[in-house]
Amino acid sequence: MNPSRCIACPSFPCTDVDHSGFGVPNLEIAPHRIKIILISEAAPANPDDHYYAPGHPLFAETTVQAFGDAGADVDSLREVMDLGVYLTTAVKCAKTAYGIATNTVKQCSQLLEQELALFPNVKAYLLMGSVAIKALNAIARRQGKPRPVPAGSTYKIRDGEFRYQGIRVLPSYLQAGPAFFIEKSKRRMIAEDIRTGLELIGS
Asked: Which CATH architecture has domain 17-200?
């Protein structure tokens, strides 16, 4: 199964993102093997930095480091994926400013909802940053369910036990791109949250 062949944006209604940077993971993957879905913020401004881009994309490099911090014995994104991890973004287009409009997150969460439905055996969602948290909450609200992640600063709520459709939800901080290097305290918490996810699936 290739997610990029299953998911498309029909109209590109959002006005605060770069539609030329639209990207859904383009790779062949066995859906039943995926146990963790890591959701970060938005597609990078440079497509060469996306998780599955050839070479040494920035998103992949910082993610491998984050999993290494968590104690995983990995040296490449392929080895992260071999743990049963699928990596994607909440917003499929590249952002054009620091923030992303709430309406854009809600709109793009419809694509994320379709994407999550491709994987039947997921045990944990790693929500890397506020945009990913907002996107999953938007999916739940659209389904008439309570939002899985309550309001509040991530550092205050991240130790709570949250679930969406029976799947453990782990709110954390953004690990993709240069933001990963900014604050050591956040990097430590990212490692802790990833470690929790790996423990849930026995890796």
From this structure: 3-Layer(aba) Sandwich (3.40)
